[in-house]
TrEMBL record:
It comes from Streptomyces nigrescens. Pfam families: AAA_33, Metallophos, PNKP_ligase. Gene3D superfamilies: 3.60.21.10, DNA ligase/mRNA capping enzyme, P-loop containing nucleotide triphosphate hydrolases. It comes from the Bacteria. Transmembrane segments: none annotated. Residues 203-398 form the Calcineurin-like phosphoesterase domain. Residues 487-693, 766-956 form the Polynucleotide kinase-phosphatase ligase domain. This is Polynucleotide kinase-phosphatase.
Length: 961
């Protein structure tokens, strides 16, 4: 029997009582090439056995480029199109069938090349039909009735010459169907690839390189909960988990260690019993070649394994050889979400079958360089990895297993005296045991040089550039325009904090519906009515602090920040604006603030209660002038200065004219009203500005901070002004009702400080006067808290704020100082009230609370459903919050004279739809970023959503909304 005859031998099966059905095995991912003369029935065969979308016909492609499927002059372009489509389908992992004559070796060569380029198996199905049958079929087709007989004869000759060479051309399988009877009896059977175990969902325990360390392997399996099975000699020959978990070994079972046969005996027993899976490592590959009698070098521990195996009987060695021969290069598991291999695998190779894939899975890739120890430098494939499947591998020893772009190396050098590590999946929990001793001296010390670098979390331009579609769990697919992505990239690349410390950006917030109340543009009645219409009964109204939106990434200590976020030692976290920019240029100021917050979290007992070493806070940072100096100078202060310069003279002239009897009464009154509006405008923005830091006075350094009835507190620290707002609009920025401290005023370059906020404790240095008002804990280690009810959120925040008194007392005690009882500190409470939107009395109380809040100079409030993530009956997401701003605060936004009836009438025509849509989309992207962060996804995946928020901020929308 010839080689072709052996390959084409088909399995005879019974199908519905009929004998002689031929089963043609076709891998479920392959390139199927139909071969046969014109008229052989290839198109009919393809239509019967494959989906229409799987079949690419040369006739169809010829029609695409020439409008005539029989135009042979268009064949060159037609096959260019065919090859392009085939390549795209194979790249996408789709079985593809080429329907063409393919009787010439040149045509088949290009197709085999395409299959190899995409690491799939080429399969040939030959329809060897007699010449007469082909001629009769062509005669029945109007477009081929005149086809010369010599064309069919030429095809038949070329087919005969090709048959014996198809295997050598590269076809993995050749199915030769002789005559019409065999073609009609054929049945295509799709075979699952050996590496495709997507139907196995675990749970799994994936174990790193063992290298003959049997004792440590048994200890690790014991920690994982496996119960060993031993033979009569006490040797472990199997291990099963009582909860049905499956162990998965990443290879390198043998060499270097003390008991490679013992490891093989245990692993082979687990695999045979269905308790484990195993992929080969490069050491198994070498041992397998040795057992087959191939010539290999006895290096890198193979000599020790050979010596150990020689003490076993021949039957065991044969069993080992058969086991190693049957190992598959890699496995795709858990619905495609998990890939296990020995040396790592880029996404384009997942589930593919070729020598190149096997080589990469066994050995990885190198840069072509050697290090100072003479070892090859590994190519950092994991740095470029962007696949959704987690890749778990070993091969390159590293001191600790860490995630990098959804990949993790589990070889922690047990045989070199390190540890043996396992990954629990899907829990993503690491379990390890220490080596009993150094069994084999490493050529070089263990270092963090797993492919990609164990400590690196690199980003790539392609992760965020261009038009993108971001999949979110809350709102599905959200589009980011290319021009918006470019604007976001500009901000992030030039001005943002370290990307490793930027896991979230807060969304914009939509205003409540426009009010028709006399003198008001926004009013709480509309906010309550809107939520009532959405079916939300209970809402919480939170005081809106007039400051700048801030996100604080707070770590328990610098070590946590370094280990979890990969930042240099000494960085305790991050404090940044809603566009990702750092709040302070001074790293020490940022560190001081974050350490104070971390101490308060510790004092409140939340590190332990929330089971976390870090948390992400959404907050407001005050004063507004801390970050808005440029805006104050160029926009608001300019208006105040102009009105202050113009109106006194205008009013004086008009009053003098009126005194002389000139009829200017209406004009004078109008100018007086305008002057009053301008004064109200200046007073409005001054409420939210004060200087921070410390300044010198004749009596010593005095903090430029809010003071209480006892007067400003005195500090003995150095003079360190931070982000001070100098005199603008003709004088220092003030707060209504403020009392000047000694030495204040334009001459000293300082301004009055607001009354009633109390003394600030020592210990904050340059941050004296800064207030941080957190209102939500967004995420902690391992989970997002964005879905926690706002009442529960604020209760946790209250504990952190309340703890500051004790923290400040500890700091003062340590320094020998003291502080006034009940004094204000860095952290500010967010006042709130709960409103029942269906209770008129409750709604009235909420409105009164807002009026009192804004009458005292407050910005307003934010109204949120008490429960987070509320949906309407039709499934649409309810706005997570709406802002309802005070009448005087809106004067800053819309101008001094906005409350005049004619102006309000015009301003009430507000188009809120786009702003509300933007708020929801940004909210969904923010939630997605938090979920990905909590689940430990790679930084590029988190930043995909973070960049989306910033990109949407570039969409054109009325900035006053």
């Amino acid at each position: 029997m010839t080689g072709v005859d052996r390959v084409e031998a088909a399995v005879e099966v019974e199908d519905e009582g009929r004998v002689g059905r031929r089963a043609l095995e076709v891998p479920d991912l392959s390139l199927v090439v139909l071969i046969g003369a014109t008229g052989a029935g290839k198109s009919t065969f393809a239509a019967r056995h494959f989906k229409a979308t799987e079949v690419i016909s040369s006739d169809f492609c010829r029609g695409l480029v020439s409008d005539d499927e029989n135009d042979q002059s268009a064949s060159g372009d037609a096959f260019d199109v065919l090859h392009f489509i085939v390549g795209k389908r194979l790249a996408a992992g789709r079985l593809t069938v080429v329907d063409a004559t393919n009787v010439q070796s040149e045509a088949r060569t290009q197709l085999v090349k395409l299959a190899r380029e995409h690491d799939v198996l080429p399969v040939a199905i030959v329809l060897d039909v007699p010449e007469q049958v082909c001629a009769e079929r062509n005669a029945t087709r109007a477009d081929r009735a005149g086809l010369p007989r010599r064309v069919i004869q030429r095809h038949q000759r070329e087919l005969r010459r090709s048959l014996r060479h198809l295997e050598r051309e590269g076809f993995r399988k050749v199915h030769h169907l002789r005559g019409q009877t065999e073609a009609d009896a054929a049945e295509v059977v799709r075979e699952r690839r050996f590496n495709d175990l997507r139907h196995l969902t675990g749970p799994f325990d994936i174990i790193g390189d063992i290298h003959g360390c049997r004792s440590e392997l048994e200890s690790l399996l014991g920690r994982l909960g496996y119960v060993p099975v031993r033979d009569g000699l006490g040797r472990a020959v199997d291990a099963a988990h009582p909860e049905g978990r499956t162990a998965v070994f990443v290879g390198d079972l043998v060499d270097r260690g003390p008991d490679s046969p013992g490891v093989l005996r245990l692993v082979m027993g687990m695999v045979a019993a269905g308790h484990a899976l195993c992929v080969p490592g490069n050491h198994e590959n070498k041992l397998g070649r040795y057992l087959k009698g191939r010539k290999v070098q006895h290096t890198h521990g193979l000599a020790e394994t050979i010596e150990q195996l020689e003490k076993e009987d021949a039957a065991f060695r044969d069993e080992v050889g058969a086991f190693l021969h049957g190992l598959v290069s890699h496995y795709v598991l858990d619905g495609g979400g998990l890939v296990v291999c020995h040396a790592g695998l880029p996404e384009k190779y997942h589930g593919r079958t070729s020598g190149r894939v096997r080589s990469f899975a066994l050995y990885g890739d190198t840069t072509g360089e050697t290090d100072e120890f003479g070892l090859p430098v590994r190519y950092p494939w994991a740095e470029d990895y962007r696949g959704r499947a987690a890749v778990v591998y070993g091969h390159t020893p590293t001191p600790r297993a860490t995630w990098l772009n959804n990949t993790i190396c589990l070889d922690t050098g047990c045989v070199f005296g390190g540890r043996m590590t396992a990954l629990r999946w899907p829990e993503r929990e690491l379990v390890d045991v220490p080596a009993e001793r150094v069994w084999y001296e490493p050529t070089k010390p263990l270092a963090t040089e797993a492919p990609g670098g164990a400590d690196g979390r690199p980003l790539d331009l392609d992760d965020v550039a261009g038009r993108r579609i971001v999949e979110t769990r809350t709102m599905g697919r959200l589009a980011v325009k290319e021009e918006n992505a470019a604007a976001a990239l500009e901000v992030m690349s030039r001005f943002a904090v370290d990307p490793r410390l930027l896991p979230y950006l807060p969304p914009t917030m939509a205003p409540c519906a426009t009010s028709q109340e006399d003198g008001y543009l926004e009013h709480p009645a509309e906010a309550f009515a809107g939520y009532r219409a959405d079916g939300v009964r209970e809402v919480v109204c939170e005081e809106k602090h007039m400051g700048s939106r801030a996100v604080a990434l707070v770590c328990r200590d610098e070590t946590v920040a370094a280990e979890r976020f990969g930042v240099p030692e000494g960085v305790p976290g991050a404090l940044y604006t809603r566009t990702g920019r750092p709040f302070f240029d001074d790293a020490e100021a940022t560190g001081t603030l974050l350490r104070r917050v971390a101490a308060c979290v510790a004092e409140a007992g939340l590190w332990e209660e929330l089971e976390t070493d870090w948390l992400l806070l959404d907050a407001e940072l005050m004063p507004w002038s801390l970050k808005a100096t440029g805006l104050l100078r160029k926009q608001y202060a300019a208006v105040g200065a102009a009105s202050g310069a113009a109106f006194p003279g205008v009013l004086g002239a008009l009053e003098a004219a009126a005194g002389r009897g000139v009829e200017v009464g209406p004009l004078l009154q109008r100018q007086r009203d305008r002057a009053a509006d301008a004064a109200a405008f200046t007073a409005a923005y001054r409420r939210y500005c004060w200087r921070v830091g410390e300044r010198a006075t004749p009596d010593g350094p005095v903090p430029l901070v809010p003071s209480g009835p006892s007067g400003p507190s005195v500090s003995s620290g150095p003079v360190v002004p931070v982000k001070a707002v100098e005199a603008v609009d003709g004088g220092a920025l003030a707060v209504a009702g403020a009392r000047a401290v000694p030495g204040s005023g334009p001459e000293s370059g300082s301004g009055p400080v607001p009354e009633g906020l109390g003394p600030v404790p020592d210990g904050l240095g340059a941050l004296e006067g800064v207030r941080l008002a957190p209102f939500q804990i967004l995420a902690v280690q391992g989970r997002s808290l964005a879905g926690l009810a706002h009442t529960e959120q604020l209760a946790l925040i209250d504990r952190i704020v309340a703890a500051e008194s004790a923290v400040s007392g500890q700091e003062d005690g340590a320094s020998g100082g003291g502080r006034a009882a009940g004094g204000a500190g860095l952290l500010a409470t967010t006042r709130r009230i709960i409103v029942d939107t269906e209770d008129e009395a409750s709604v009235a109380a909420g409105i009164r609370w807002w009026l009192e809040l804004t009458a005292d100079g407050g910005e307003g409030m934010v109204v949120k459903p008490v429960q987070a993530l509320i949906r309407q009956p039709d499934g649409r997401l309810v706005q997570p919050g709406v802002k309802c701003r005070g009448r005087e605060y809106l004067r800053i936004i819309y101008g001094p004279e906005y409350t005049r009836p004619e102006n309000l009438k015009r301003l009430r025509i507000r188009h809120l739809g786009h702003k509300r849509s933007l708020a929801l989309r940004e909210y969904a992207l923010g939630l997605e970023a938090l979920d990905r962060l909590a689940e430990g996804e790679p930084l590029w995946r988190v930043h995909e959503a973070v960049f989306g928020v910033l990109a949407l901020e570039s969409e054109p929308v009325d900035p006053r909304l």
